[in-house]
Amino acid sequence: MSPASMSLSADALIVQEVAPRDGLQIEPAFVPTEAKIALIDALSAAGFSRIEVSSFVSPKAVPALRDAAEVFAGIARRPGTIYVALVPNLKGAERALAAGADEINLVMSASETHNRANMGMSCEASLDAFRHMVAAARTTRATINATIATAFGCPFEGAQPVEKVEALVGRYLDLGVDGVTLADTTGMANPRQVADLVGRTLARVPAERLTLHVHNTRGAGIANVLAAHAAGARRFDAALGGLGGCPFAPGATGNVCTEDLVSLCHEMGLATGLDLDALIGLARGLPALVGHDVPGQVAKAGRPCDLHPAPARNAA
């Protein structure tokens, strides 16, 4: 059955692919524009409903994504897929909207220290900038998502109060955003913490408008996804091969691995609408693309249903 023909159930897990942006932003070797476009087109064909294509940031800050406009111009847009751009400021938002992004993703941190490191400004300054970015987007057809980074902990400040994160969700909603993302930027979350914050957030944000962005820095990524799903969340970011990390957060290694998560979901009977065989094939090509091994496991070991012949026994 093709991904497009799958009917997703109410408990389906919607995977949003972020490897082209969050996965490649930290790579020291520049991935050619044509290769990025080919990767995104292949991800579209695998059935993703949302793909984060790139980020319109300063090339000096993130040189790996200096070709964001060219990538947006070159991709073949699949009907039904939303192509997202992360934007740090009004200039970035204007560039993303001019490039035809279907959605812009605004981001600030729950942590003041991380926001200054990541965005170069205070949290209040970020929120003030968001007002202008939302106004710019409302002159187009693009939707607006807003991310709270370090929602589950900051590498500089430690745990962030739940009430602080809840207040930021409220301020995002007051700005009129279409969706909210809770991000475990450096993989500090645990399943109980995730379930609690997701439950609190779902009291204000419908499940179809809430996304979890989970990193696997300490090996708890998929456990946190399943805890969030059990608490009612349905949309999750993941990166092919487990690529990624924040350049401005110490120790923030890769995202939850897309093909590992999709494989587990399918084993558990949770629909994703994605072509797992295609994802595994793409993941196996990543080392050649980025020049090093990647963390994903299913691409190395195969699916649980991929059986092997029994070893021959030596005759006595």
Task: Provide structural commentary.
With 316 residues, the protein is an alpha/beta fold. It has 13 helices and eight strands. The chain has an eight-stranded parallel beta sheet. Helix 7 (162-175) links the parallel strand 5 and strand 6 (179-184). Helix 8 runs parallel beside helix 9 and helix 10 packs antiparallel against helix 11 (276-284). The longest helix is centred in the middle third of the chain and has 15 residues, at 123-137. Mean pLDDT is 93; it is low at 1-6.
Q: Enumerate the spans where pLDDT stays under 50 for 5 or more consecutive residues.
A: 1-6
Q: Rounded to an integer, what's the Rg over CA atoms?
A: 19 Å
Oligomer type: single chain
Number of helices: 13
Shape field: globular
What is the chain-wise order of helices and strands?
EHHEHEHEHHEHEHEHEHHHH
Helix percent reads 25-40%
Proportion of β residues?
5-15%
Q: How are the SSEs placed, and which strands pair?
A:
Layout: E1 14-17, H1 19-23, H2 33-45, E2 50-55, H3 68-74, E3 82-87, H4 90-98, E4 103-109, H5 112-119, H6 123-137, E5 143-149, H7 162-175, E6 179-184, H8 191-202, E7 210-214, H9 221-230, E8 235-238, H10 258-267, H11 276-284, H12 286-290, H13 298-301
Parallel strand pairs: 1-8, 2-3, 3-4, 4-5, 5-6, 6-7, 7-8
Task: From the structure above, extract its key features.
8 strands; alpha/beta; about 325 residues; disordered N terminus
Give me a quick take on this structure.
The protein has 316 residues and is of the alpha/beta class. Helices cover 38% and strands 14% of the residues. It is built from 13 helices and 8 strands.
